[in-house]
Amino acid sequence: MDGDGPDENDLDAIGPDPSLLLVDDDGPFLRRLARAMETRGFSVHTAETVAEGIAIATREPPQYAVVDLRLSDGSGLDVIETIRRRREDTRIIMLTGYGNIATAVNAVKLGAIDYLAKPADADEIVSALLQRAGDRAELPENPMSADRVRWEHIQRVYELCERNVSETARRLNMHRRTLQRILAKRAPR
Fold first, then answer.
1. What is the rounded average pLDDT of the residues 3-27?
2. Are 167 and 131 in contact (CB under 8 A)?
3. Partners of 142 in beta bridges
4. Omega before residue 61 within 30° of 0, cis
5. How far apart are CA 22 and CA 20, in angstroms?
6. Which of 34, 57, 65, 168 is deepest in the core (most CB within 10 A)?
7. CA distances from 81 to 72, 108, 116, 123 (A)
8. Does an H or E element contain 95, and which?
C-alpha cells in the first residue's frame, strides 16, 4: 500500500480539492490506507463508525470517499446517503469484505461510482477514484469461479427476499438448512 510519493499525474487527476473520507471499522487497515492515500496527495479524514462518518460528511463533505459496507454500528450505505445529500459531485467507492451483486447495485443507486472487494490496495482504490466517466474498467485477471457466481446469485435472491431465509429457500428450490449453511460461510474466491 505504500508509494514513494505523490505521482505528478495523480496530483493533476485529483484536482484542486484533495479531501478524502475513509470509513472502515478495521483500525489497522484504515490507518495503513490513510497513510498510503496521503502519500498519493489526498487530504485524509478517517472514521471507524457510521456515526463518525456521517458527522464528518455533514461537517465537511469530501470530494472523494471510500466507505466500508459493514461497520460496527450499521451500514456504510447510510454514510453514502449523507454524503450525496451534502455534495453531489463526491466520487464514492464502496469497499467491503462481503461483496455481492445486490449490495453493489444498491451502493451504485445511492451514488457510489464503484465497488471494490477487500483486500483492495491503495493503487486499486486510487485508480477507481480517479477513473473518468466513460473509461472502461479493466477486466479482472481472475474472473469469478463458478462457486462464487452461485454464491452471488444466492445473495442477490436473499436480498430481493428482504433477507428472509424461508422465502429465499423456497424461491431457490433449496432446503432451508442448506441455505442457512451457505449464508453462514464467507464468499468463495
1. 76
2. no
3. none
4. no
5. 6
6. 65
7. 18, 11, 18, 25
8. strand 91-96
pLDDT in tens, 23-65: 998 888 899 999 999 999 999 999 999 999 999 999 999 999 9
109 is written with which cell numbers? 443507486
Predicted pLDDT at 11 = 59
Q: pTM (2 decimals)?
A: 0.68
Query: Could you tell me which residues come within 8 angstroms of residue 146 by beta carbon, excluding any fewer than 6 positions away?
Result: none
Query: Any idea of the CA torsion for 168, 172, 173, 176, to the nearest 10 degrees?
Result: -40
Per the structure block, which three cell numbers stand in for 88? 453531489
Kindly give the interhelix angle for 165-172 and 146-160, rounded to the nearest 10 degrees. 130
Q: Look at residues 157, 147, 156 and name the one whose alpha carbon lies nearest to residue 186.
A: 147
Measured over the CA atoms of residue 73, residue 159, residue 86 and residue 27, the dihedral's sign is positive
Question: Per residue in 105-130, pLDDT tens?
Answer: 777 788 888 888 777 788 889 988 88
Which residues is 91 bridged to in the sheet?
A: 64
C-alpha cell at 78: 447510510
What is the set of domains in the chain, with CATH numbers? Answer: 8-130 (3.40.50.2300), 146-184 (1.10.10.60)
